[in-house]
Amino acid sequence: MPTPCPFLPSCGRPLSWRDLNALRDDRGPELYRLCLEYGQQLWLDDLPARALLAVDRALYCDVPGDAGVLTEYPMPYRAIGWMVKQPADTFTGNARVHYQHLADRVRGERADLKKWRAWAAWAVTRYVRPDLTGDPKHIVSEPTHAEIEAGLSTYGVSGEIDEWRRALAD
Predict the structure, then answer these.
(1) pLDDT tens digits for 143-164?
(2) Which single residue of 27, 89, 124, 141 has CA 20 to 30 Å from 147?
(3) pLDDT of 45-98, one tens digit each?
(4) Do 35 and 67 contact (CB within 8 A), yes or no?
């Protein structure tokens, strides 16, 4: 059985995509926590790629900086780094490419925030797994840490940059 991610909560009950779908119109703190809990469950079910997608969904929730859930479970950059760093035979794909594509292709509501959070997750992934290569067919200007920090400063929530920096130091 996989080790629980120390940066994700457990909810103590089985979850499914239906639980997340029930909150699709309210993308706030409740969905944020539920996505993190679902990510933990998927991780423990040995579904690491799906777990990472659940955590990604939490990144895109509309959580105000003063929401209580962020005190207990800040933006999940450390969870992303921890998960990507774990040895897993069932992890499919390349997380660096995943975040590279996500950052460059995000559209719609709050696109700038989502883009900078995806780039922040990309930087964490590059840090914890320097062996993962980018997609050479997807030409994109990869931002510097200073540019990512500026994007998070402009669009992110209070304390987000500090949490991102912690993920880069783990």
Answers:
(1) 999 999 999 999 999 999 999 9
(2) 27
(3) 998 999 999 999 999 999 999 999 999 999 999 999 999 999 866 677 899 999
(4) no
Report yes or no on 78 lying in a domain. Answer: yes
The full DSSP string for the chain is -PPPPTTS---SS---HHHHHTTTT--SHHHHHHHHHHHHHHHHTT-HHHHHHHHHHHHTS---TT-HHHHHS--THHHHHHHHHS--TT--S-HHHHHHHHHHH--STTHHHHHHHHHHHHHHHHHH-TT----TTS---PPPHHHHHHHHHHHS-TTHHHHHHHHHH-
Overall pTM > 0.90: yes
Structure tokens at 119: 């780039």
How many structural domains does the chain have?
Answer: 1
Is 130 within a domain?
yes
Q: Is residue 76 assigned to a domain?
A: yes
Is the separation of the CB atoms in 84 and 129 below 8 Å?
Answer: yes
- Expressed as residue numbers, the domain containing 59 is 17-169
Domain assignment present for 134: yes
